[in-house]
Amino acid sequence: MAYGFMDIARTPAVRAAQAEMGADHLWADFEGHRDFDRFTEQEAGFIAQQDTLYLASVSETGWPYVQHRGGPPGFLKMIDNQTLAFADYRGNRQYISTGNVKAHDRACMILVDYARRARLKIYVHAETLALDAEPQLTERVLDKGYGAKPERLFRLRLQAFDWNCPQHITRRYTETQIAAVAQPLRERIAQLERENAALQARFGPGGAPPG
Ligand SMILES: Cc1cc2nc3c(=O)[nH]c(=O)nc-3n(C[C@H](O)[C@H](O)[C@H](O)COP(=O)(O)O)c2cc1C
Fold it and tell me: Which of 29, 59, 140, 186 is the S-S candidate for 63 at Cβ 3.0 to 4.6 Å?
């Protein structure tokens, strides 16, 4: 049966490691269908909420390289069910990911949603595009009002994706998420402060009825 992600990942050395651990039969005789070569509504919804991704590329000398990319939630755009794109902003001007994908277009991304404890890994063919190469795409991908200087687009053609289990993902929350959760508490505190002030005005700071 198909297991697109593992078809890529199961190199001879990986197979040997799986065999050594008695796990090779799990993947060799995979019963089921996990030929995830098209995004569904589930991935679309997940990707639209993410503000971070990690992109692994490979250099011409065979060294892997991993780098963070981020932006406002939904900065990674789903162009169609096999294509993603994001704006690449000016940074330290090392251009390592950019150079790597020009030499080798195979890349792997992982998106981790710490609050929801979910992670999605995605094999892609990656390319960079000048901002004026495909104006309609650029228009769609750039987040207007985001205060950073875009230098290029990354376009990512899906090869295979897979979901991981939530194991060992420690929950973390963004400021925005915390603000939303804290808002009812803030309102409650404000209400109690008002009540407290009214009671103090009536009964004095110690709470005893005046004189
Ligand atoms: C002024 C400035 C300095 C930065 N310095 C570093 C750094 O020393 N190391 C690093 O990994 N990222 C640094 N960053 C973030 C990277 O530039 C950013 O993640 C960029 O996308 C890296 O792309 P690359 O690793 O593919 O070259 C810096 C960003 C800015 C704006």
Answer: 59
- Give the pLDDT mean for 36-57: 97
- Cα of 119 vs centre of ligand 1, distance in Å, is 24
Position in ligand 1 atom list of the atom nearest CA 95? 27
∠ CA 28-163-25, rounded to 5°: 15
Phi then psi dihedrals of residue 68, to 5 deg:
-85, 140
Do residues 86 and 141 lie in contact, with contact meaning Cβ atoms separated by under 8 Å?
A: yes
Alpha-carbon distance values, 17 to 31, 74, 163 (Å): 20, 37, 21
Q: Which residues contact 120 (CB under 8 A, 6 or more apart)?
A: 43, 46, 47, 110, 111, 161, 162, 163, 164
With contact defined as beta carbons under 8 Å apart, do 87 and 79 qualify? no
Task: Give 145-162 pLDDT, tens digit per residue.
Answer: 999 999 999 999 999 999
Does the pLDDT at position 22 exceed 60? yes
Residues with CB under 6 A from ligand 1: 67-68, 91-92, 94-98
From the number of C-beta atoms within 10 Å of its C-beta (0-12, 13-18, 19+), residue 25 rates as exposed
